[in-house]
Design a protein that fits this description.
Blueprint: E1 2-8, E2 10-12, E3 18-26, E4 30-39, E5 46-51, E6 57-59, E7 67-72, E8 77-82, E9 91-100, E10 105-109, E11 113-117
Length: 119
C-alpha cells in the first residue's frame, strides 16, 4: 500500500509564509512526478507546483516567484515553501505523486491540508 502523508498548513496572515511537506511511504519501485494541487471552495482542483525526479519544476502563474517546490529523492519527500501568501491562496492543498508499484504507474493523493490566509 502506498500513502502520501502531508504536514504543515494552517492559518497565516497575508504576507506570511508556510511550509507544506509530503512524504511517500509503502512499497513501490519508483516515484515519478510529485507536486501540490489546491482546491478552493466550489472550485476544481488546480495545479500549484510540480517537480520531476530530476528536479525540474513548474508552477501555476499565480504562485510564480512566491512558492518554491523541492524534492529529496532519498527520503521520498517534497517540500513547498509558500511566501508572501495572499487570501486567494486559501484552499485545501493536496500532495500528488505518480508512483510505480509494479509495472505501471498510478496517481496517488494525500488527504489534504488546509491553508487559510486571513487577517
Amino acid at each position: 500500500q502506498v500513502q502520501l502523508v502531508e504536514s504543515g498548513g494552517g492559518l497565516v496572515q497575508p504576507g506570511g509564509s508556510l511550509r507544506l511537506s509530503c512524504a511517500a511511504s509503502g512499497t513501490f519501485k519508483r516515484i515519478n512526478d510529485m507536486g501540490w494541487y489546491s482546491q478552493r471552495p466550489g472550485k476544481e482542483l488546480e495545479l500549484v507546483a510540480l517537480i520531476t525526479t530530476d528536479g525540474n519544476s513548474k508552477y501555476a502563474d499565480s504562485v510564480k516567484g512566491r512558492f518554491t517546490i523541492s524534492r529529496d529523492n532519498s527520503k521520498n519527500t517534497i517540500l513547498l515553501v509558500m511566501n508572501n501568501l495572499k487570501p486567494a491562496d486559501t484552499a485545501v492543498y493536496y500532495c500528488y505523486g505518480e508512483i510505480q508499484r509494479q509495472v505501471t504507474a498510478a496517481d496517488y493523493w494525500g488527504q489534504g491540508t488546509q491553508v487559510t490566509v486571513s487577517s
